[in-house]
Structures are given as structure tokens and as C-alpha cells.
Amino acid sequence: MAPSLTLNELSLQYGADKVLDNINLELGSGQIHLFVGPNGGGKTSLLKSVLGLTPFRGDIEIHGEYRIGYVPQKAQFEASLPLSVMDFMLLSQSRRPLFWFQHSKHKAKAMEQLETLGMAERAQRRMGQLSGGEQQRVLFAQALLDNPNLMILDEPTTGMDQQGIKVIDELITAQLNKGITMLAVHHDLGAIAKLPDPKIHLINRRYQGSLSPEQLSQMQFVHHSQEA
Length: 228
Ligand SMILES: Nc1ncnc2c1ncn2[C@@H]1O[C@H](COP(=O)(O)OP(=O)(O)OP(=O)(O)O)[C@@H](O)[C@H]1O
Prior knowledge:
Keywords: ATP-binding, Nucleotide-binding, Transport. This protein is α/β, with parallel strands linked by helices. The protein has 7 helices and 9 strands; from the N terminus they run βββαββαααβαβαββα. Strands 5-6-7-3-8-9 form a 6-stranded mixed sheet. It has a 3-stranded antiparallel sheet with strand order 2-1-4, with helices on one face. α3 packs across α4. The radius of gyration is 18 Å and the shape is globular. It starts with a strand and ends in an 11-residue tail after the last helix. The structure holds adenosine-5'-triphosphate. Adenosine-5'-triphosphate binds next to α1.
């Protein structure tokens, strides 16, 4: 069973700036939990707290065994960085040195995920030479490698073309159909409306309540896609 999470009095402050203020939330297993709200409202900070990437106060409990797959908001790879797409995929599969892992089994697994994301032909390209949308696809492929049961997605379709958005949205639905738990920041109302039973949590420093997709569509900060 995929993990559930409990946020207990989660607070986070950068200097004097209180970004998250006493958030209490139960996040059920096998569901997609979407965090929505205005820019600067603390959505990314909440995801980073769950990932242990930023210090916070309060407790975050993850119940059950979990394997996390994380797709960050945006990646930046220098064009000159001598790191190929395949290197990047293999690197994130293990903490051991890269050269130990030029093993065909690992490569085949990495290639399979790249294929799922339509990136197999780009495997030998440098990460920094890919477009932003292509980098997002590779990051998503990498997040799927260890068969995660908790995925954390921070605006996974940012900078993508329509085809890329479709691929990612279909993968998100496929993962949910497998029963995994997802936490996501996602702005596209059209995509959200198609998700199976999305739990939508409004965050603006404080927890402001849950919304239905219809209620969300009334909010000022929402991006309406053509399909919405
Ligand atoms: N490392 C940091 N140091 C200082 N301030 C930060 C840091 N990270 C974020 N902030 C500030 O914290 C606030 C919340 O940022 P956060 O990225 O969590 O918001 P968000 O809801 O994800 O915003 P957006 O919708 O624009 O992505 C912002 O005012 C931001 O400037």
C-alpha cells in the first residue's frame, strides 16, 4: 500500500518571512494531492519540507514504506556540462560511482523509462543541450526509475509543449491507477479536471481549505488551458 502522510503544525520561515504557518493536513494513500494558491504562497516550500530539503518546524509523518520519485520545478544544466542523458539516468540509480554502473541491466531499465517519455533517441545528448521541456521529460523518467510509490511533482509540465504535457498527464494518471500517492503543484485546470478524484488543497502561507475542481476554476490565480 502506498504511504499516507500527516502534517502536524508545519511551519517554515526564511529569516523574518513566515512562508508556512501552522499547517495541519492528512494526505490519504493512493490519491493525488494538489497544492494550489497564489505565487509565493508556500507550495514549493511545502513539497521541499516533505522531501527534507529545507528545515521546518512541526512534524511530517510518512506512514508505511515508501520510495520517493521527485520531479523538481525546473532544472538547470550548463550546456558545457559533460553529462549525457544516460549518465544522468544512471547517476540517479545509485550512490555508487558511475563507472560501476555501465551495466546493461541498468542501461536497459533507464532506456525503457526514456522511451516511455519519448526521449530514447536523445540518450547520448548532453543534458544542457536539451530544451527545457526535454529536460523535464528526462527528470520525469528519472523519477520513475525506482518504481516509486510516493511521487512529488513540482509543476511537472512547466515549459512543455502540448505533446509533452499530454505525455506527462497520461503518465500521472497511469501512476495513480497503480495506486501510488502523489503530491503535486500543478497549475493547469484542464489537466486537473481530468485527474481521478483529485484532492485540492489551497495554501497561502496558511492552509485555506479544500476545493473542488469547479471551485478552483473560480480562483483568480488559476491558469485555464484551452481544454478547460
Ligand atoms: N531559500 C529561500 N530563501 C528565502 N526565501 C525563500 C526561499 N525559498 C522561497 N522563499 C520565499 O518563500 C516564499 C514562498 O515560496 P514558494 O516557492 O514556496 O512559493 P510557491 O507557492 O511555490 O510559489 P510559486 O507559485 O511562485 O512557485 C516566497 O516569498 C519566496 O520568495
